[in-house]
Amino acid sequence: MDWNELTFREIEKILKEEPLVILPIGSVEEHGNHLPLGSDSYQAIYVAQEISKRINALVLPPIYYGFTELDDFRGTVSIGFDALYLLVRDILRGLIKNGVKKILIISGHASGIHMAAIKRAANETVRDYFVKIILLSDYDIAYELRGKLVPYEDSHAGIIETSRMMAIRPDLVKGNLRFKKGEKGSFLVIDNYSTVYPEGTFSNPEGSSKDLGEKINNYVIERLLIIIKENLGIM
Question: CA 139, 144, 148, 151: dihedral to nearest 10 degrees?
Fold first, then answer.
């Protein structure tokens, strides 16, 4: 169910049943020559909607912006740590004011600083209020398949992400599966990622397919349903 499509009376009635409420979070970030800037958001929204179909959860309007270090690529729009933390914190407080007790935050963007901002908001919320929150990126699950269905080094805009987008939004996937990596020493702090990954892909996307994307997406959804059941008792 889409939160935005319901009336306040409908929400009032549904919330009495203490349903799971899902907050999808993405980013506006480059994903190579072949994937759209909204790839992280599309994936998070898709997962949220599929989970909702299976357990009748409520899906909130997504947060399309996040913190990303790839803002030297044109089109990328990053927001700061504090801005993201405060936005998520205030949304969570608004949900609690509505009586929500079970929340899933699913982020299609998984960079460390981005997730840390969201985690800070979630940690403060569970400390201060009687609420259960599950927080993860769908890539915490999808990357379990590295070294199995895809090469172990698969990463940003690589085979997993490209295949998932081929299954979710094939109309937005271009055929320019280019990959080129510059020189980078171990543990080197990078200022401009475009100097190391000029094509915007962190691993080779060749070998991506819609069928593989469907397998990965199904794996993510089934694993997430298990996580929800284990932590919240929702089936």
Answer: 50
Query: From CA 60, how far away is CA 17, in angstroms rounded?
Result: 17
β-pairing, 102-107 vs 132-137, is parallel
For residue 167, what are the contacts with CB-CB under 8 A and spacing of at least 6?
210, 213, 214, 216, 217
pTM metric for this prediction: 0.96
DSSP string, 90-147: HHHHHHHHTT--EEEEEES---HHHHHHHHHHHHHHHHHSS-EEEEEEHHHHHGGGBT
| pLDDT band, very low/low/confident/very high, at 73 (cuts 50, 70, 90) | very high
- Maximal C-alpha separation, the chain: 58
At residue 185, does pLDDT exceed 80?
no
Q: What is the pLDDT of residue 191?
A: 84
Q: How far is CA 85 from the centre of its chain?
A: 16
**Euclidean distance between CA atoms 119 and 133, whole angstroms:** 10
The architecture in CATH of the region 3-232 reads 3-Layer(aba) Sandwich (3.40)
Best CA proximity match to 167, nearest among 199, 133, 142: 142
